[in-house]
Amino acid sequence: MHHVVIERWSRGSSVLHSRDARIKLLVTLGYLIALATTPGLTLARAALYAVPIAAGIQLGRLPAGALLARAAVVLPFSATFALFSVIAGDTARAVSLVVKSYLSAAAVLVLVGTTPLPKLLRGMELLGAPRMLTLVVQFLFRYLFVISEHAQHMRLAALCRGSGGARLRFRAAAGAVAVLFARSFGRAEGIHRAMLARGFSGETPALPMVIDAVDVLFLIVGLAAALALRVIPL
Q1: 144 inside domain
Q2: 40 neighbors 92 (Cβ within 8 angstroms)
């Protein structure tokens, strides 16, 4: 599962992992704004925008091939909109849209791949994100592991029973979705009762976060690089 792999990446140790989550969020946001507002993304400028991605992968000790492959998940969506630009005769705009979406996805993956989710959400809260939103995102992400576990158990059981024709497999899959929903709902109820029994009141303990001099330097360099990428003439 993609979320399991990214969770493992975020628990690593590197120069980028040790940076404050708020700083990484601001630098990534600056990069995304610069990339999104760049008109007429040429090949040379796209190559320059790829440099921070490569640097982030290197500093974060992330697997380049796996990360770049996962960033491609956005291509079917961006290619659909790019197709309309091609039909309208604006091929350059179509290419720019695909490249921008891919680089944006890679930048976000570098961020989440070097920042554990609790720290990332805590950083978002300190930057002004609604606490209810971050709480829902955290529970949703954690519950993906529960659904994954149930789905894997059901898949293993189906494989042990053997497979029939296409119609039988379709009916089995449809029934499996209903069973997975029922089991997941029951598991969620059990988790909720367990949390209430442990005194959960709608808030999670706040993680202490401190910005040091290295974080400030990283912020300055990161935002300056994003600004330079945006305004440099090519």
Answers
A1: yes
A2: yes
Cα separation, 149 vs 160, in Å, equals: 17
Query: 51: domain range?
Result: 2-115+209-231
Non-local (6+) Cβ contacts of 110 within 8 A are 16, 28, 53, 56, 57, 60, 62, 67
Q: Is the pLDDT of residue 168 over 60?
A: no
Residue type at position 86? V
CA dihedral 202, 203, 204, 206 (to 10 degrees): 180
> 109, 10, 22: which is closest to 65 by C-alpha?
109
- 213 and 99 in a common domain: yes
Total tally of structural domains belonging to the chain: 2
SS3 147: helix
10 and 74 together in one domain = yes
- Same structural domain for residues 9 and 38? yes
How far is the C-alpha of 233 from the C-alpha of 3, rounded, in Å?
A: 39
Q: Is residue 19 part of a domain?
A: yes
Closest by CA to 214, choosing from 23, 7, 66, is: 23
Lowest mean pLDDT among 72-81, 200-209, 210-219: 200-209
Whole-number pLDDT of residue 21: 94
Mean pLDDT of 73-83: 90
